[in-house]
Amino acid sequence: MVKAYIHDNDSSVDFREDHDTGKPVSLEKLEQIGLIYRKFDTQEEVDQFAQDRDYKNRDIVNITVNSFPDEETMISKLNVFYAEHLHEDEEIRYCLDGEGFFDVRDPFTEEWIRCRVQKGDLLVLPAGIYHRFTLTSDNYIKALRLFKEEPKWLAYNRPDADDNRYRQEYLTQVGL
Ligand code: KMT
Ligand code: NI
């Protein structure tokens, strides 16, 4: 089970720390805001899931200190991932190794819900949900990214995306 909890919003502490308020978030709550979570132990299960949802493309990202020329370049990349954004299509991520934090914005309360993904965890973030990503203090994730079409991904940052059509559709879908 993916560990999920309310984020403490303490920006004086590095974003790769846990930021755990101690308030857990249930799978039912994640489903209410449109997330899908699966635990897959084999690549075949992931492939089947991708095929059922009509996913045609994929890539693997390795995000760690050695993937960048220096620490500063890594931090600037992490800052991009950590900007609150949405996409016009689902974002599917499967953790192959290491771990990472996907923070999703609860549209009902505006709280950040932090999901710690570890090996075998698959998350589907629906189109239009505001979210962000970071490494944990271990500084390493290897993740499979699944794409319906070409492996390119446009991010729309908040607040510019507030009147994006997919944002509006997302809010309607969750009942807002
Ligand atoms: C995203 O969209 O934020 C990402 O792809 C982050 C890297 S996936 C572990
Ligand atoms: Ni994203």
From TrEMBL:
Similarity remark: Belongs to the acireductone dioxygenase (ARD) family.
EC number: 1.13.11.54, 1.13.11.53
GO cellular component: cytoplasm; nucleus
Cofactor: Fe(2+); Ni(2+)
Highest taxon in the source lineage: Eukaryota
Pathway(s) served: Amino-acid biosynthesis; L-methionine biosynthesis via salvage pathway; L-methionine from S-methyl-5-thio-alpha-D-ribose 1-phosphate: step 5/6
Binding residues annotated for Fe(2+), in chain numbering: H85, H87, E91, H131
Protein name: Acireductone dioxygenase
HAMAP family cross-referenced by the UniProt entry: Salvage_MtnD_euk
A GO MF label: nickel cation binding
Cited function: Catalyzes 2 different reactions between oxygen and the acireductone 1,2-dihydroxy-3-keto-5-methylthiopentene (DHK-MTPene) depending upon the metal bound in the active site. Fe-containing acireductone dioxygenase (Fe-ARD) produces formate and 2-keto-4-methylthiobutyrate (KMTB), the alpha-ketoacid precursor of methionine in the methionine recycle pathway. Ni-containing acireductone dioxygenase (Ni-ARD) produces methylthiopropionate, carbon monoxide and formate, and does not lie on the methionine recycle pathway.
Keywords from the named record: Amino-acid biosynthesis, Cytoplasm, Dioxygenase, Iron, Metal-binding, Methionine biosynthesis, Nickel, Nucleus, Oxidoreductase
Localisation: Cytoplasm; Nucleus
Gene name in the database record: ADI1
Any matching Pfam family: ARD
Catalytic activity: 1,2-dihydroxy-5-(methylsulfanyl)pent-1-en-3-one + O2 = 4-methylsulfanyl-2-oxobutanoate + formate + 2 H(+); 1,2-dihydroxy-5-(methylsulfanyl)pent-1-en-3-one + O2 = 3-(methylsulfanyl)propanoate + CO + formate + 2 H(+)
Annotated residues for binding of Ni(2+): H85, H87, E91, H131
InterPro entries (alphabetical): ARD, ARD_euk, RmlC-like_jellyroll, RmlC_Cupin_sf
CC cofactor note: Binds either 1 Fe or Ni cation per monomer. Iron-binding promotes an acireductone dioxygenase reaction producing 2-keto-4-methylthiobutyrate, while nickel-binding promotes an acireductone dioxygenase reaction producing 3-(methylsulfanyl)propanoate.
GO biological process, one term: L-methionine salvage from methylthioadenosine
Primary location group: cytoplasm
